[in-house]
Amino acid sequence: MTVIRVIDFETSGTEPPAGKVCEVGLCDLDLDARKVMEPRSWLCGVDAMPPDVRAVHHISLTECAGEEPFRADDMFAHVNGMPAAIAAHNAEFETKFFTSPVPVICTYKAALRVWPEAPSHSNGALRYWLEDAGKIAPEHALTQPAHRAGPDAYVTAHILLALFDAGATGKDMVQWTKEPRLLPTCPLGKFRGVPWPEVEAGFLGWMLRQPTMEEDLKWNAQREITRRQKGAGL
User: Fold this and answer.
1) Which of 28, 60, 181, 220 gives 20 to 30 Å between its CA and that of 115?
2) pTM of the predicted model over 0.85
3) Gene3D superfamilies from the entry (predicted)?
4) How far apart are CA 213 and CA 108, in angstroms?
5) Are residues 12 and 93 in the same domain?
6) Rounded CA gap, 102 and 177, in Å?
7) Beta-carbon count within 10 A of 194 CB
8) What is the C-alpha separation between 71 and 77, in angstroms, rounded?
9) CA nearest 108: which of 86, 92, 131?
10) Phi, psi of 104 (to 5 degrees)
């Protein structure tokens, strides 16, 4: 059985060490059987729970009291054994809190590549978009409540299965995870929402010159510039 373990964290903050994992969710995808297993989750002990992050997942400090602190090894001590890879939606967030001993797949970055036409690439939006298209059929009860680690991992596992069904390979997705996110359209300025081939060359150059511009955005701009240069035979 080839297992990819989908993970999701709820945390007490967005950056370690101040932010810590307060809930872990796991959901295994049996790739050979094309089957999403039932999710499991557990709370972890933390020493603070700021109101702004509690407002996202609604986990209280009292609920975490007496629980063991997060241990990454617990995610790999599982009945299905060591996975071939792990996956998460926006894996850049989860991998701030631990170092994976196996390859990592970011379903967010993969979805941007495979479904650039999707109305949104958030976990929830992709779930309903793929469900409406008949490409996934998660059990609704296991998707609830939203913004909790177990249900979110379960949703992501279905998105991952749909990515494989669409022809993406594990090797592809591991490589895409290592690269910046490939955005289907320009996300800012007067060209917001415009496909990259339609963005003026001057604007692309301006993006590269901005010292505070996100590196992912510069990468997308440079990628389009390089594409045009190759097309012109330069």
Assistant:
1) 28
2) yes
3) Ribonuclease H-like superfamily/Ribonuclease H (3.30.420.10)
4) 21
5) yes
6) 13
7) 15
8) 11
9) 92
10) -115, 140
Question: Cα–Cα distances in Å, from 147 out to 8, 18, 25, 46, 127?
Answer: 10, 21, 11, 18, 13
d(CA 111, CA 20): 27
**Is residue 8 within 8 Å of 153, Cβ to Cβ?**
yes
Q: Which of 163, 180, 231, 177 is CA-nearest to residue 201?
A: 231
The residue among 49, 47, 37, 38 whose CA lies nearest residue 10 is 49
CA 118 and chain centroid, separation: 15
User: Is the residue at 204 inside a domain?
Assistant: yes
Q: How far apart are CA 5 and CA 83, in angstroms?
A: 6
Report in angstroms the alpha-carbon separations of 199 from 191, 209, 213.
Answer: 6, 16, 17
What is the distance between the alpha carbons of residues 205 and 227, in angstroms, rounded to a whole number?
14
Q: Tell me the two tokens of residue 72.
A: 């990454």
3-class SS at 128?
helix
Domain total in the chain: 2
**Percent of the chain scoring above 70 in pLDDT:** 99
d(CA 81, CA 210) in angstroms, rounded, equals: 47
Judgement on whether residues 76 and 133 belong to the same structural domain of the protein = yes
Residues 74-81, mean pLDDT to the nearest whole number: 84
Is residue 23 in a domain?
yes
Q: How far apart are alpha carbons 3 and 192 in whole angstroms?
A: 39
Radius of gyration of the chain (CA): 19
Q: What is the C-alpha end-to-end distance of the chain, expressed in Å?
A: 48
